[in-house]
């Protein structure tokens, strides 16, 4: 179910606060300021800090998983699916919206110390691995849950490394890295 316009406004503001100020800066007051809303607006929708973090984690994961799901659908219907090319284009779009990736990284680090958040992110990770396995099937690659999980972990590392590169170098870095991963982990044609 889509978020109400006000909740969407708050989650968008929270995303930017988290990306710009880190988890310590993610407060109800900071979200209200960023959203341009009166103090107390965020806490009316998300009572506790934990609720704010959980809602933001779900929102970030849903946005990213939605992109991957659309990619899987596109590749499943393509005459000659190009998984590497499609992944490069998707990752470049994500890098252009760096706040999503930075927020995901911040929340992932927080989950290493928070079992409840870890459980939420583990479920989302499982869904992502399933989508990647579906993409591998659509592109004719040798696949298994273990290969898909290794690709997801590798892609996470590539995205993190790409975030640290100057914008002008990201495209070439993504292409080179995903070609290497595609050849090594994704396996050959599944025939």
TrEMBL record:
Keywords: DNA-binding. Residues 27-46 bind DNA. Gene3D superfamilies: Tetracycline Repressor, domain 2. Transmembrane segments: none annotated. InterPro entries: Homeodomain-like_sf, HTH_TetR, Tet_transcr_reg_TetR-rel_C_sf, TetR_C_31. This is TetR family transcriptional regulator C-terminal domain-containing protein. Residues 4-64 form the HTH tetR-type domain. The lineage of its organism: Bacteria, Bacillati, Actinomycetota, Actinomycetes, Propionibacteriales.
